[in-house]
Each structure stands twice: as C-alpha cells, then as structure tokens.
## 1
Amino acid sequence: MERTSIKTLTIRIADSQFQLACHEWKRTLVGTVHSFGYMCGLLIVGPMSDRVGRKTAVVITGILGGFFGLLRSFSPWYWFYIAMEFLEGAIGDSCSPMYVLVIEIVSTKRRLIFYMMCGFGYCFGGITLAFVAWITPNWRWFLRAIYIPGFLFFVYKFLLDESPRWLLIKGRKNEAVAVLEKAAKKNKLTIDANSFNQLSCDVSPNVPFNELLKDTFKSSQLRMRFFVCLVWWTASTFIIYGMIINSVTLQGNKYVNYGLSSLVEIPASLIVTYILTHFKRKLPLMLSFFTGAVLCIAQPFIPLGLPWLSITFYMVGRMMSSFFFAITYMYTSELFPTYTRNSMHALCSSVGRVGAIVAPQTPLLNVYWSGLPSLVFGLVAVFAGLTTFLVPDVSDDLLPDTVLQAESLGKSKIPPKDAETHIERDTSKL
C-alpha cells in the first residue's frame, strides 16, 4: 500500500525532469502500472512460493525489489522509469510469501496477534517514506535512500527458517522437525521426541500447478469462496487506494497528510487485533464494510463549513478500510488448503488488484459531481459486505491441509484422525 501511494509523491518530485506538468495522465499512470505489475506478479510469486518455499521466495523478491527500485533512480527517460516500475511490482514485492510464512510458523492461538504486530511495519514504513520524501527533494536520491536497504533481504537467508508446514507437505519431515526443535529450544520448552516422530501430513506429490488448482476448483464450496474473496480484494484495494489518492485534496502539507494517513494504521491494527481476538472473522468484516459504506456515502453531504467533521469522517473511514483490508488478508488464507494456500491467496490478491488499477481514475468522476467518488466507494463496500454471507465463519479452526478439511470449515471441528496431520497438534506451545 505504501509503495503505490508514495509513487505519487515521487513522480511529482520528478515533474520538472520528465516534463509532466501538462500531462496529468502520466502521473497517474505510475501507480496504475505498479498495481498492474503487482497483479501479474502475484500469479508468478504465489506458485513460486508454493514450489521453492516461503523463505526462498521472500529473499528473491526482496532483493529484486531493491534492484529494480535502485535501477529506476538512474532512469534517463520516463518510459524506462515506467518499465522498471512494472518489473518491481511484478517480481520485486515480498509481501505475499512473507505473509504466508508468518501465519504458517505461528501456532493458531498466537497467529492473529503476531500478524498484527508485524503489520506495524507498514505503519512505520509509511511514516518513514513520507519523512524521507519531504527531506529529499531530489527524486533520484530519494529512490536510492528507500531501495538500497532492500538488498539486506539477502541476510534473511541466514536469519529465517522455512515454514515447517511447507516442509511437511513437501515430504521433508526431517527438516521440519529440525525447525520445530530449534523453536522449542528458543522458547526453553521440552517436547517429547515421540511427538515429533508422530508428526505426519499428506505429502504433496510433484503435480503441475494447474492440476493443483483444478483439484481445488473441483469443490463447489471452494469455487464460491474464491468468488467472494475476489469481491473482498477488489473492493478493499479499490476503496483503500481510492481514499489515499483522494487524500491529497485535504488542506495542509501533502507529506504530513500522507504520514497521518499511515499513522492511523496503528490504532486500527490495535483495535482490529482486539476485535478478532474476541470475535470470529465474519461479523467484524461485515461491520467494517457496512460502517465504511455509511461514512463514504455520508461524506458528500457534510456542510462545507464543517471541515473538522469532514476530516473526522475521512480518518474514521480510512480506519474502516484498514479494518476490512487486514481481515480480508487473513480470512482469505484461512479458507483454502495448504497445497494451494499461497497460490489461492496470491490469485485472489492478484485479480483483486483490479481495484487498485481503477482507483487512480476515480478523481475523473469529480467532473460529474464532487461527491461521486465517495458514493461509489460506499456502494462497493455495501456489495462486498453482502457477499460475506456466502462463506463460513472461522477463527479457532486449524489451518486445513486438504480440500476435504477446507470444506469442513465452519461445520464442525476436524475429526481427531484428520487433526493428527496438523502441526499444531504437538507444537501448540511454540
């Protein structure tokens, strides 16, 4: 999210060199191309993560992101800049494999809190980006300042452990046990060796990616979930990016406004963590969509003489968008089996990025009515909230490994026999 938004700040800094003053479409094209590249890239990064491992995918994409960003700082002309922007979005973003690695190495009870704690990185990153952009007027040095640290992802090769769940599903039990023993030692826990020996999981055969997807889509329930997740992702990216883009119309310094827009993520993360810890996924997601819809639809009708109320509505609406984006990210990964979890998560996220591609064009609606963009955001949120009725509610369920287990979500607890295939059975204390 921060990367796409900061593109607007960067390209405005480069206005004079690329002669963009009279070409507004070239400015908006930067964010659109990045989102399109990210959409295409998730179809590559997701399957790559399922094939070569979460850790390897994180290292590769992290380093490539730094490389293409740094290369862009030497752009001799606008279209070279655009090409590097596309490549960075396509194969230089490590968010998807990193997220799946996080949820697979943490036990069910601690998964939510750990994920939300990691989410603070987005908040601090957004604030830092705005600050660096403010103090670095030269856009080339700005890009170098924020992308050179990307090469530090190479160190993750030695600092990170691979997902035990992924290792088990690939039939590499000894490596998975080694990772779990290391975790137990770090936490000063003693686990019976027999517990590790009894760990089992349905081994994923060397089946082509399209065959794995075919097995997933054979299930009518999983097809319906895929459709709903697409709606969630499209609505979430469209609304959240649309709100960020339209935030530049607020009074004040654009860098400060962007920093504040990122800062609101901190209370949003704390609140959504509390809500999801005490409640399940479905109701909070629906309420955040519907509350956001009310705020967006009401926004155009606020009297012009009450700017404080307008800003308040904007900030609360921005917080709601953070709510349903965070819940969508987690909810999606919990609805599909391990075999294709990262691939399905990446597929939903990728196709759903259509919302992020369309969002930069919403300011054009102001020609017809200044409140039309906000009204559209509200209607989209209503539709996304209604589709949530079509999926099961989850929270304490173990992550499913197979299609059968995924289909049983929300109906009853997984039978003991099947539950033995879950890592959490003997490592819930880690």
## 2
Amino acid sequence: MVTRDSVRVFSLNCWGIRYLSKHCRQRYAMIGDMLCKEEHDIVLLQEVWSEKDYLFLKKKLACSHPHSHYFKSGVIGSGLAIFSKHRIHDTFLYRYSLNGYPYMAHHGDWFGGKAVGMAVLSIGSLTANVYVTHLHAEYCREKDSYLPHRVVQAWELQQFVRHTSAGADVVILGGDLNMHPQDLGNRLLMSYTGLRDSYLETDKFDGCENGLTLIADNAFISKKELGPFEEGIRIDYILFKGSSKLEIFCDSMSTTKGSVPDYPFPYSDHEALTAELRLELHTPAEIGGGKQSKDQDSAAEKVAELVDIVTEARTEVKVGLHCAESMRYTATRTAAMGLALLFLELFIAAVPWLALGAEQPFPRTSFYLLAVLCFAILLTTSLLYIFYTMELKSLQGAEDQMRLALGSLQEKLRGFPLAQPHNAQRKSPENQEPSAFDPEE
C-alpha cells in the first residue's frame, strides 16, 4: 500500500539590507502579499538581515504560516528565516567556521554570520528536517580567494545534514548556495548527502531558461555582476531526499522570471523558487524488495566518484592553508617591523635623559604621531595574526576530517572486489543517485 502526500516549498534570497537595498520596505510588503496568496507549506528565506523585517512578515503571515523561526548569528544576524504551516518542534543553528575576512568590509560576508538553520517539523505522521542556508558569495570566478572558505562551508553543511537527519523521514534543504551546479562544493554536498536537485528531478518546469536564479533581465542586476555568464547563473536551490520508508518526487518546479505583474520591480535581485514535492510512504515489503535490487557495481562507482570529489576538496583546502600561512607570516613580519620602530622611538626618547642637557632631536608632534603609528601597526597586525591563526586551525580541522573520510571511503571501496579507480567521466547531475556513503545504509 502506498500513502501519498504533497508539500509545497518556497525559497528566496530577499536581498533585505535596510537602507542599502533598493525598495526594501516595499519589496517585503510584496513578498508578504504573495506568500499569503500562494500559501506554501514551507517558506525558506535568506538575507532577512533585520529582525524588524522578520517580525513584519511574521505578523503578515500569521494566518497562512502560523509557525516561524528567525535564526540569529553574527554581528548583523544570519539573515535566515523559516515560515511553516506545520508545527515547528525544534530548531538549531550551526555557524560556519570560516566566512570571509573582516577587513573585506565592502563584501560584508564576515559580518553576516553565514550559517545553516535547521527546523524539525511534523508533516502528518512524518518527521521532516528542514534546512535553510546561505553560503559565502563568489565575487570573482577567475580569481576566487574565497573558494577554500566556500568548500569548507559545503563540507560542514553536508556533515551537519548527515548527522542531524538520520532519524528524519523527509529532508529538505533550500537556500542561496552561491555555487554553480557543477562546482566542487555542490558536488561534495550532493554526493555525500544523497540530496537531489528539484530542478533536475522534475519533468514540469516553469521559469527562467536552464533554471537560472540570478538573471540579466532582473531590474536589480547589472550585467557586470554576472561576468562571463551573460544570461545569468543558477546558485539558488531546493534539494530533497526521502528515507528508507519514504520516497520523494518533484512533480513541478517554478521560478519567477525577473519581473512581477502589476509591480514596478521584482521581489529581489534573486529569483524565487517553488517546488511541489510528492511524498510516497511505502510498506516494509516494498522497501525490502527495492533494496535487494541495488547494483553493487553502481555502488562501487558512486564511492569511487566520492573519493575523487573529497580528494579535490582536500586539495583546495590545502591551497587555502598555504595562503593563510603566507598571510600570517606577512602579518608577523609587519608586526616585527612595527615593534622595531617602536623600540627605536623609545631609544630616541631616552636620549635627553641619557645625555644631560641634550634637546629632543624630533619635534614633539611628529614624535607622538610616530608613536601612534607604531601602536596602530602592532594592534592591527596582532589582530590579523589571531584571525589568520583561527583560519588556519579551521582549515586544518577540515583537512583532517577529509583525510579521515577519504581513508574510510577507500577502505569501503576495497570491499568491492571488482571496483576500479574512478577515471571515467563524471556523471551528469541529471543521473545523480543517493549517496553510497549515506549513514542509513
């Protein structure tokens, strides 16, 4: 016997930076009106940076989505919020260990406290773990200095999802991953967790061509931001997977298309995503028959592919380690120069006391300004040294975890007698299957 149910999931990066984002207040009103009208089951929002805006939406959606949670993190918050028709029983926030650099203030990611938020819901008799996240942005694809940070974030995200969703019947993850479909972090997340992409899984799609979510036709987007991708990029996702007793199918998916009828501007600089998920609960007999039909060769191929992906991720983290060590060395050398300059100044200041009757060789104002400069150099470089040391430890921790995981995967691969090194061309996202390293197996 098969029991069916459906869940409508909505995800949007709201671009809600008060006083900086264009038409922020009006757009939140538009988003609230649309959500009241559409009545999605689960709403996942990112970049709701102001708690006042969250409270505005909470009040507006009180009837359609009576259950909600706002995840607080960092200096200005995580920007993550969940609204739901179904009761939220539990929530948890995990803040990523790496998230850019504080001195890159014009990018602002470090101040945002990027994280993944989890909510445990009850959908009928089923337990659903719902995740919302926002990863570090990619500002320059050709020379991406944040790539090691984003890879570590993807690694921590897949760990968090795997370790917290073991008892869930339904797993849903939505958000702005800031990664293209074939990027390393995306492949790492999808392969390790077995999550499936709604856009690739559905046969019924209505939206931007190729599922793009950051498009040139959006009034808030300049073509310069898109770089070599003139039409746009796909960086926002709704991912899902079932469990041993439940299968999930994406019956349809849609995105907004850069404009909103009857309004002068769109909801955000990102396009909104909506996925219609069908849940099918099977009997134990049906589940057992399905598991017996698994192909061992296919499982070996998936593990081998995962070995390649983790090896690539580990290499990228090592590149980040080398850069962090270099920057810490530069900070140390600069601090030493500042300290030497300070000692020189102290020696000059002591001249009048060592040579009685001698006058101060430097004007007093210049002397004080030089002292301030020395202290500023020492303070700045000390803070940078501490920051780079923290970055190094986070990168080293991730690299150690990847090394252990790689050893475990290789040991598992040796358990397949016919398994060969994975030199074949990678499978396309359309053919991705649940992870061979899923803890449920």
## 3
Amino acid sequence: MGTVHAKSLDPVPMHGRDLGVNPDDLVDSPEPEHEAKQEILENKDVVVQHVNIQGLGRTKEDLLGYEISDVFHAKNLIDVMKKAHLARQKLLRLGIFNEVEVLIDTSEGADALPNGLDVTFEVTEIKRLTGSYNTMVGNNEGSMVLGLKLPNTLGRAEKLTFQFSYGTKETSYGLSFFKPQPGHFERNLTLNMYKVTGQFPWSSLKETDRGLSAELNFPLGITNHTLKWEGVWRELGCLARSASFAVREESGHSLKSALSHTVSIDSRNSAIFPSRGALLRVNQELAGYTGGDASFLKEDFELQLNRRLFWDSVLSASLWGGVLYPLGGQVSCIADRFYLGGPTSVRGFGMYSIGPQSEGDYLGGEAYWAGGLHLYTPLPFRPGKGGFGDLFRTHFFLNAGNLCNLNYGEGPRAHLQKLAECIRWSYGAGIVLRLGNIARLELNYCVPMGVQSGDRICDGVQFGAGIRFL
C-alpha cells in the first residue's frame, strides 16, 4: 500500500503490519482537542465523505470512479485502509500510472461529520510515449523484442502498441490496440495488425503471414473466455532446395478466415512451478465459414493436475489432445496441423519430429495426444533456500504420446485404435529453472522409447526453453 497518513489519528499497530501500513507513517501525538474524535474513529463506525484524485492529466475521471467506488462503502477505519489499498491495486493494474499514493485524513469544513474521513489518491501518470527492449523465450526459441507504446491513448486505459521481434526462427512486427471495459479491466478488446515470417526446419518450410485479428476476453463465473476472429494471408515456401515433394506441393498462397473460442479454468498457484491446483483449457477453431480458402474444424484441449507431497515435492500430471477435421472435402494444410515431439512435449525426441513424414520432412498430423507424469523436488541439500535456489527444481518425468492422420470414414473405435498404435514414450531426469513467472528452462537426460521408423531422437542430454510444457 502507498504511504498512509492519518494526521489526527493514533496508529493501529495490531492491524497496521498486516495491511502493509508502517506505524511510523502515522502521527501518534494527536492534539488534546481531537481525542474524542479519535476515539470515535478508532472504535466506531466512520463515514467516507470525500474521495479525491490528484495528479490527473489526460486520464478521464469517470474511468477511475469505477475503481475507487468501494472506498465509500467502508464502515470503520480498518475497512477504509483495506478498501483504499485494494483501490490502489486496481488503479495500478490499469497500467496508466507510475505511482499511486494514498492519504487518509479526517474531514474538514462546514459539512464535516464527527466521524467523517477524506481519502485522497495522489497519482503520477505514465508518459505519453514509452519504449521497451527485452528478450522473449518461446517454445525452444529466443527473440529480441523492441516496442513502442502509447499508454492511456484516449484517456480510458487504452493502449496502442507497436512491436518488432527478431528471433532465431521468427521475425515479426505488428500494431495492436487494447481497450478495457471501464470498471471491468478483465473484460477487454484487442485489435491486431501484423506480419510474421517464420522458419520451420523440421518441415523444410518457411511461412509468411499477414493478418488482422479481433479478440474479446471476458470472465464468466470461474471460467475465462476468449472469442477471436482472424483473417490471414499465408505464403508458404520451401526453406531448402532439398525439401520433399510433399512440402513443395504445399507451397503457395492461401487465405484463412477463422473464428475461435477458448475457455479455461485455472486454479493453480503458479503458471511455471505450481504446487497445487488444476488447469483446463479447451479451444475450438472454425475456418471457412467467414471466407477464405481454408476450411476445417479444429478442437484441442490441455489438462494439468498438481499435488504437493512430502519435503516440498510436487507431483504433476498433464494431458494434451486434439483433432483437425477438414471440411468440404478439402485436404488439410501443413500450416494448420498438429505437431509433436521435442523438449517441450514428448522429451527425448527431436523438435516436432514425431508422426507422418516424407523424405525427412515432418508433415504434422490431424490427431494427437500426449501425456506426462512429473515429480518436482527442491535441489539436493537445498542450496540457496529462500533465495536464488528456489528458482531451481530437480525433475523426474515420464512422457508418452502419438500423432497420426485419421480416416474419417471409419468410426470412433478405429480412430482410438490408430491413436493407441506406435506410442512413443520417454523417461528421464533433469534440472528446471524458472524465469520470472512466464517461462522456464530445462536441462534433462532423456531415454526415448517406442521409437518408430523416421522419428528423430535425442538420446541423452536435451535442452528446452519455453512457456508451455507437457
């Protein structure tokens, strides 16, 4: 919480520490004539008469009214402190202020009540134009990212962002506009315009996408939803002269217009090193009904369960799966299929090197599943406990999965039988490093099993970096 001043109040140390209030910030020598008023404020109900915001420039006051309105409902001094602290957090969450300080004082003036309080938020707005430079870790690739932002573009927490990214396998630039709903920051709309050029050496393929998208995010009960439309002009080409004929056949231009919906429930206490909770994410994508020459229905899901065991160890189980169903008698595109294998999914295998392939180029599949069982433990002898050492975990794993194409003229039993054939699996151990709360690095010793003809394996030490791991 920001600095809290109560000029005419004694501190309340029994609650101050829990609320992040430093008793030294509260003046503990009230004037004698205020003693009666002080007694009323500390032990009886109070009324918040005024809430003021100082330091506003381009920010619209009506936006902030939604974030601070709960302060008026506080019934006693401690409740005022709690609600003022929550309001401060909401204001900072908007991403339009560098600093927010909170001051609480007794009401003054002709309309002041004996138990009246005034709350003042002193804010410092972010500059109109900000720049950033950082590195980003994707699924086994790294990027340098340069960005320019115009925060609070129209005065109601909007954000206009230009971003350029140069990576080991992908180069992109794009322009996005973010608009939250006033009073409900988690409900927001994002518009994007972008160009992405990527290289996929496992398929001897390069792809350039130029597209537009609109994305609506909103919570509903315990679930979070994302509705998205995307229109993209895709240009596929061969990465090398040695590309297989199957990849050369895929070369050329296509237009995809797709609607998608994602629903998720996430009760984990951490996205990278969860020790409890579960995640369920289900995604549906329908292409072709809003235009374009790609036509398919795509369904995939992700499930993760975590449970803390003895000695700060954690048992984690994960399951992924998906199906791509071409519509209108079309053949699926190599850019729309699923891929499996590598340090972020079925460890011990090369990056996306499981499943259908032609002349050494991996073509992806229309159906897949992958499962993992993991045991995470602290480092032996707990070096750096409570500090740097807590960023590391030892890791024991068992992974399995399969990727294939289905004959949709057959029934579900035949499909399940096909997915149960030729299962690849692996086991091993290693060390995991957490990078903030968004990514992680893994260094594992892997033993691949169930290897099929054409699979590329990594028998021994394998390094992985990414934001999503099986």
## 4
Amino acid sequence: MSQNLRREVLKAFKSLHKARRHVFEGDDNALTKARTQINQEYKKCKVVTDPEAIRELVAHSRAVESELISTVIQAKEVQPGKYEVRLRDKIVKLDNVPFKDCAQ
C-alpha cells in the first residue's frame, strides 16, 4: 500500500472515531460499543491489498461518518414518558408528520 493511501486510511479511521466521540458524547456505553465496532471493521479489512478496494472502503468509512453526524440523535428520559433530545447543528431535520393509527 502506498504511503498516500495509508495516510488516507488512517485519516478516515481517526475521523470516524472523532465523529463517534462527538455523536455519543456522554454515553459511555454507546462510545465503547461504537469504538469496538469501528476497530473490528478496520481489523477485518486489514488484509485488503487492492488499492481500488481500499479506496472504496475509505469512501464507505466517510459515508458512515457522514451518516453518524447527520442522522443519529440521542434522547434520555427525564421523566416517565418525557425525553430530552440533544440535537447537534448538523442533524438533518425533516418536516414532522403526525402519526395516524388506522386500526381505530
């Protein structure tokens, strides 16, 4: 693997961990599980030697990072049935459509 490609992989790895720390801030359980999952996925792909396949994996890593940053939110129950949500600036917000239960 060329030095530039190696640098790109390491940069994507670090960036994904940085996103993980930002998204799951204050949630030790989620931080640990996400760290374990990221490390496992990178170790699993450690044997890949084809430069094009490595570039695809780096692109996938960046897509996962983007998904984490733009769609994952955390909510914690502050009272029974009431939740507090921490929305970050980069969360994609869509129009809210009320749920209608058709079974009634």
